[in-house]
Amino acid sequence: MKKILIINSSYRKKNTFTVLQNIRRILLNHGYDIEIINLKDYEVSPCYGCEYCIYKNKCNIDDDMEFLMKKLEECDGIVIGTPVYINNMSGNLKTFLDRTCRWFHRPVLEGKPVMLVATTAGSGLKNTFRSLEEGLVQWGVDIVSEVGRTISNLDKEIEKKEILPFIKHLNTDGMSYSVTMKQITTYQVQRALANNIFEVDKNYWKEKCWIDKIYYRPKKVGVIGKVTGSLLFNILVKNIKPVDKKL
């Protein structure tokens, strides 16, 4: 049975939580094992920017973050919900994402499907989704669904078409997923950094057999993506200067 992790980043169990519960019920009917995590119930401290996690592959902050990251590693699909605050995601969700920075260097969630959920009393859905996508693409995940609700349609029933791409990805292991140009370009940045900056990253990418690939799953990349990605990587790897830096 495939496991789905639902993350609720609202401090209240109201609008966002209600939509997530409705999605949970649909997914349960499809036979998935579902777990909901309310971020407010866990201690997640701000990132110090110390780079300790990059070198040691674990954070030196004693809180619940390592536990939560392990949950993400062990699941098969992820649903992330947030209310819109100041035209963006909630503060505790942003703090949570900041703490996963080592996954930019050494992705562990590559290829997992993600569904984004956001609710707002006014505007901001588009910007919130865009901001989440900018961050989550660095995890190497596939963002396959977006479910947005405003104050005027909070009671609107979740439509099958809104979550069908997520279910399809789960059931087919992403066989029909099309890699985006954003994913390809982000991958080239990550690959060039792994090649030139941190030895621990380079070793990880070599072990994963990614260091010479155009993307995690090269068969998913079209001709234009392959040419563009290759050119970008060659430019980056020539201009990013190697460093001898140890913690």
TrEMBL record:
One of its GO terms (molecular function) is oxidoreductase activity. InterPro entries: Flavoprotein-like_sf, FMN_Rdtase-like_dom, ISF_SsuE-like. Pfam families: FMN_red. Keywords: Flavoprotein, FMN. It comes from the Bacteria. Residues 3-132 form the NADPH-dependent FMN reductase-like domain. Signal peptide: none annotated. This is Flavodoxin family protein.
